[in-house]
Amino acid sequence: MKHSLFTIKDRRIRYIAKGILVGIFTGIVVSLFRLGVEKILESIVQLYALFRSEPIWLLPWAVVSILAALIIGLLVKSEPNIKGSGIPQVEGQVQGVIHVQWWSILWKKFIGGLIAIGSGLFLGREGPSIQLGAAIGLGTSKLTKGDETEETVLLSSGAGAGLAAAFNAPVAGLMFVLEEVHHNFSPLVAVTTFTSAIVANFVSLTIFGLTPVINIGAVTSLPLQYYIYLPCLGIFLGLAGWLYNKVLLDILPKFYQRFSFIPKHFNSVIPLLLLIPIGYYLPSIIGGGSGFIVQLPKWNLSLFILIALFILRFVFSMVSYGASVPGGIFLPILSLGAILGTIFAQLMIHYFQMDARYLTHFILFAMAGYFTAIGKAPLTAILLVTEMVGGLNQLMPLAVVSLTAYITADFLGSKPIYESLLEKLLPVDHSISINKPYSFIHPIEANSHLAKKAIKDVQWPEDMIISSLHRGNERILPHGETKIYIGDHLIINCDLKKASTIQQILKEKQI
User: Fold this and answer.
1) Helix (H/G/I), strand (E/B), else coil: 476
2) Between 20 and 30 A from 37 (CA), which of 114, 422, 487, 510?
3) What is the per-residue pLDDT across 195-212, written as a single tens digit (0 to 9) for each?
4) Helix segments in 168-268, DSSP class H
5) Distance between CA 89 and CA 95 in Å, rounded?
6) How is the chain split among helix, strand and coil, in percent rounded to 5?
7) Helix (H), strand (E) at residue 106
8) In sequence order, what are the residues at sequence separation of 6 or more whose Cβ sits closer than 8 angstroms to the Cβ of residue 435?
């Protein structure tokens, strides 16, 4: 028993030590990526100011934009898994249905993301940051000769560290991995991810300082008399989130099918050229939207302008993401939510005599609610917004809006956006893969048919072995009489090409 306890402690120490390494390297790489995007975007905005005084320079700038599209296209062609945010690819890696070369992902996503996001396209840095962190986690495991379970844990911790460094949000980074990537709680994944997230966040804070990513100043508590508006806002955001998913998944692909004469990996030429008139006339709104969110409550825009602004950012964020460039939808979703929150607050101010001082509050609530309706990850949304603005006194209204938005989107049949995007990435028979041994962790949740059953009493899928069972700090070598309980984690060994099918069968045992 003592030997087993020491083995578990040694194992945890090893994972934490590697988690620290992942956090350090992810913090450095993602901070450089974040700094690069910000500096390039600042320069692009200054160039558009120059173009307004000397429009003749727009012609050579169009040539530069086409060259940028060629570079992005060549990178995407050589490594298709860098397109998009990268979050669906990370989820696919955890599930064992997508397999990547970590070094190829790392440098090509870095360069491609700098060009695409820095150019001013309506894309976010958080998805690429998560994928960069996951690549570093996978690389750390490979270079230190970890097994398949360790690869999964470290790439997950790298993903959480990437989000932490991108937004100064270590707790949201942890919750994102548990809620969005794994969809369950694993103590080993949690402690390793939290270690990496804290370390990566510390590195980021050292470079960028303690100022929140969205620095809107101190926000007072919302008076109880205005809580009646929160469920209404949640329903509004749930409907808007359902529309977002519908357009992104069903309508957007049809739009790019009209440009079939352009190779798919060079589709970025379309948004990059369309960006030129937007940048020329409205340089302050280009980019992912973090600076835009900070300025929104200060601009005092009319309802008509706000609606027009929402339509513009909605449509062009779709066009930007649909071009299969390295860039995310995380931050654009938050910026769209901020506009919807402003629209809702303006309506309450003008027609229901709400105090105008609380407009900023509804911007924050709407950011979390809109992301919840689209991503179906309410805890991540609440914690992310809380950490991004640097305040904890809005948790209750954030929770009310997010829960209402979640229920509304769920009632409309809206699925989590990243899971839907992953399904579109995979071929119809995505169980076909390279033939090699593979292991994964299967958690026993409260709704599992496996709970309270002995291993011998379960009809398991063919061609799999339960190599061990983790129960809290205890590691058990299972046999036929071993009983399975809620909270246990089964380590499953199988052939890689059958992993996806086996995982699906086991998931169906949850009700």
Assistant:
1) strand
2) 422
3) 999 999 999 999 988 777
4) 170-176, 187-208, 229-246, 252-257
5) 10
6) 70, 5, 25
7) helix 102-118
8) 495, 496, 497
